Amino acid sequence: MNNSRRLFCKNSLTMAAGAGIVSMIPSQLSCSNPNETIVIGAIGVRNMGFADLRSFLRQKNVKCKAICDIDKDVLNKVSVQVEKTTGTKPDVYTDFRKLLEDKDIDAVVIGTPDHWHCLMSIYAMQAGKHVYVEKPMANTIAEAIIMEKAVERYQKVLSVGQWQRSGPHWQDAVDYIREGKLGKISRVKAWAYTRKHTLPVKPDGPVPEGVDYDMWLGPAPKRPFNPNRFHYNFRYFWEYAGGLMADWGVHMLDYALYGMNVHAPSRIMAMGGSLSHPDDARQTPDTLNVLYDFKDFVVEWEHSIVLGMEKFGNRCGIAYEGNNGTLIANRGGWQVIGEKDNKGKPLGEDVPFIKGQGDLDKHVDNFLTCIRNDKLETKCSVKDGKEVAILTHMGNIAYRTGEILQWDDQNNKFIGSEKANALIKPDYRSPWKFPEI
Predict the structure, then answer these.
(1) Which string of DSSP letters, residue by residue, matches 221-282?
(2) Which fold has domain 168-357+388-421?
(3) Alpha carbon distance 121, 435 (integer Å)
(4) Which of 138, 183, 281, 319 counts the highest number of beta carbons within 10 A?
(5) What pLDDT sits at residue 31?
(6) DSSP string, 111-172
(7) Residue 18 banded pLDDT, cuts 50, 70, 90
(8) CA dist 362 → 69, 268, 358, 376, 379 (Å)
(9) Residue 32 confidence (pLDDT) above 70
(10) How confident is the model at residue 5 (pLDDT cuts 50, 70, 90)?
(11) Do residues 133 and 158 touch, judged by C-beta distance below 8 A?
């Protein structure tokens, strides 16, 4: 994409709008050209990072210029896949900073472990790149807040990989809720049951060949290599992620916030622990219940890593409970179960299951469209990503402190809890420094 052309167009449109002559601008000056190629670089290309990259490559007029990963085996395999798909071999890096130096790259796709999301996103924006970052947007409350400030300062498009925001059936469900058909909603339940087996304790060992482990750790504390803390299982250790709460919770709880049109609770409490497998390697709880008090209603989060049970027939989902009925939604679709009074008279309607569809490609398309239109508000903007990241971290902090917490939304801190406030901001390992915006 020709960035100088886009800047010229944007400045021209701004001046014309001020002069009241927008209708006189030739269409050639529009920066909204769907045929304009957007050049991307992908950082962290294993697992969901690779799924994101494949989605980008399915879009029209997208070119992958470079990929980056700290694992050379992953890097080489994905490089072959990209060349097979596109006919062009991408540049490969193990240090993401080298990728960001490439001035041809318009946007980066960040699919790394959570503890890297903040720094990489901000470095990318400082380098003039737009950002598509996997969920959760940040691994701490302070990181989520500073990322929003970075978007405001650098005016780059940032979209968070909570791709349900682009799903038509999810939006239809929210529209139904906001029409008031459920009556007064008193409780929203969100849950995830994943049926993962125990994670046996393993000894520290040698770093796998071809892995830049120091770069993988990045701002996290220096530790010997342990296979349980690497690749997929990193999500069960506080230094890198927030467990199932931050993994699945951001998806489901995002719709608690969006559906109810709220952004922060007043009180939070949590109960749980390593209750199914107390002796395995996970730091994060395998069983957790969190209550969020929004004064006019409550939100409940519930998860189990090791059980395969279901609520309303779904292992993951969300339910809005109103006087007239309950709306249940998940990735497969949504439905409404109507309430009845004591005499069996219907208070609300039943809505048979309405099937949904995959939404990742739509989410990626929205990000690319926003870049082409110089529009910062994506389907899942930095504000959306920030609010649900903070919500999930609140739940984890309530669990870790064992306290009933009160949140000061004006000052972004907990009221009267030093233990909880100490967990808001991470302590980065040198030479990495917490961003200042």
Answers:
(1) PP----GGGSGGGGGGSTTT--HHHHHTHHHHHHHHHHHHT----SEEEEEEES-SSTTSS-
(2) Dihydrodipicolinate Reductase; domain 2 (3.30.360)
(3) 11
(4) 138
(5) 52
(6) -S-GGGHHHHHHHHHHTT-EEEEPSSS-SSHHHHHHHHHHHHHH---EEES-GGGG-HHHHH
(7) very low
(8) 26, 34, 8, 17, 10
(9) no
(10) very low
(11) yes
What residue ranges of the chain are covered by domains with CATH 3.30.360.10?
168-357+388-421
Mean pLDDT, to the nearest integer, of 20-28? 39
Residue 307: the pLDDT is: 82
Three-state SS string over 13-39 comes to HHHHHHHCCHHHCCHHHCCCCCCCCEE
11: CB partners within 8 A, 6+ apart: none
CB 307 within 8 A of CB 195: yes
Share of the chain above pLDDT 90, in %: 87
The phi and psi torsions of 37 (rounded to 5 degrees) equal -75, 130
- DSSP reduced 3-state for 380: coil
The pLDDT value recorded for residue 417 is 98
Confidence (pLDDT) at 6: 52
pTM across the whole model = 0.92
Whole-number Å distance between alpha carbons of 291 and 289: 7
- 236: closest CA among 306, 291, 289? 306
Among all chains, which residue has been given the structure tokens 């998860």? 303
Q: How confident is the model over 76-89, as a mean pLDDT?
A: 97
CB 62 within 8 A of CB 38: yes
pLDDT at 2 (0 to 100):
53
Range list for CATH 3.40.50.720 in the chain: 3-165+364-381
Q: What CATH number belongs to 3-165+364-381?
A: 3.40.50.720
Measured CA to CA, the distance from residue 80 to residue 90 in angstroms comes to 9
Per-residue confidence (pLDDT) for residue 312, from 0 to 100: 82
What number is the average pLDDT over the span 304-321? 89
CA-CA distance, 394 to 423, in Å (whole number)? Answer: 10
What are the residues whose beta carbons fall under 8 Å from the beta carbon of 145, sequence distance 6 or more? Answer: 386, 390, 412
Say if CB 401 and CB 417 are below 8 A apart: yes
Q: Which of 261, 244, 266 is CA-nearest to residue 405?
A: 266
CA–CA dist 268, 291 (Å, integer): 6
Contact between residue 124 and residue 101 where contact means Cβ atoms under 8 Å apart: no
User: Cα separation of 280 and 276, whole Å?
Assistant: 9
